[in-house]
Amino acid sequence: MALLSSFTTVTLPRTQTPLFYRKYPSPKLKLPHLFQSNRIVAFSASKLNDQIASKSTNQIPDLQHEPQTRTWNWRGYSIRYQCAGNDGPALVLVHGFGANSNHWRKNIPVLAKSHRVYAIDLIGYGYSDKPNPRQIGDDSFYTFDTWAAQLNDFCLDVIKDKAFFVCNSIGGVVGLQAAVVAPQMCRGIIVLNVSLRMLHIKKQPWYAKPFIRSFQRLLRDTAVGKFFFKAVATKESVRNILCQCYHDTSMVTDELVEIILNPGLEPGAAEVFLEFICYSGGPLPEELLPQVTCPVLIAWGDKDPWEPIELGRNYGNFDSVEDFVVLPNVGHCPQDEAPHLVNPLVESFVACHAKSYVEQPSS
């Protein structure tokens, strides 16, 4: 009961969709689409209803804001990214494990109407290069340190400005790590269903550690791993996996299956896949959040079978987290399953903190 009392429900009459928000005394929060009452931050139901009701006009991409695909040379590697929009604050969209920048296809054109939007393929994923760590002599290449460095360098080299990070799953850990390493590059972070990293060495029960490590070595160092990857990298397997993590399975379309599968058929994808599932070190979200100095908003699909919201709610207690937002009847990838909820969240959060940034000129 104590946990439930720390949330409030806002019912949206037109959609019958409740959203839950954590109580948090945040004097900084002055979002134009939000209101504050009794120290509870909640969406203005009428305002959000208008946004959702206008989905037919506000959420349908127009050709003017369709993303352009470009490449960026980073440390000698070719990195694919997409960009759209010419004005407003910069946003960098960071995908999760096994995904790529196309997973933000429902967000980029909408957000580009009032932002400079960039979506990047992390090295090893999508259509970015996939160097084999054994061939380059670096067995610790695919780590959050590498991806965080890539994200910060992208802001410096391509955007040439600080940016807001919008991240899903392991992309959330990447964004948090990047903000800790180079706080001057990040204006704020929106994290969607951040990876809890339940196979992290610190979270493994002592009696399971030797078995998990042996299984990881079996996958990484023998032909079993390649056989396992081939079994996963099929249309049927990808569809089944997506149907597990999407609550609304009607959103698992042929297009989505192709978006996830096709880059996984490129040379080097198997090695990257096996490297990451054998990666049990690096930072945890609960270790990074206390070190983050920029504002953070956490949103969570409450039907996520991989990252249970019951465990994720605790992240809302960190000082850097302004709000913890529950997205009802949504799975692990809210940006794709419920863009009509995620896009307004991003717009409101950025509008608040971009305004405060403009009002405080740099020294």
Automatic annotation (TrEMBL):
Organism of provenance: Arachis hypogaea
Residue ranges of every copy of the AB hydrolase-1 domain listed in the record: 89-339
InterPro entries in alphabetical order: AB_hydrolase_1, AB_hydrolase_fold
Pfam families: Abhydrolase_1 (PF00561)
Protein name: AB hydrolase-1 domain-containing protein
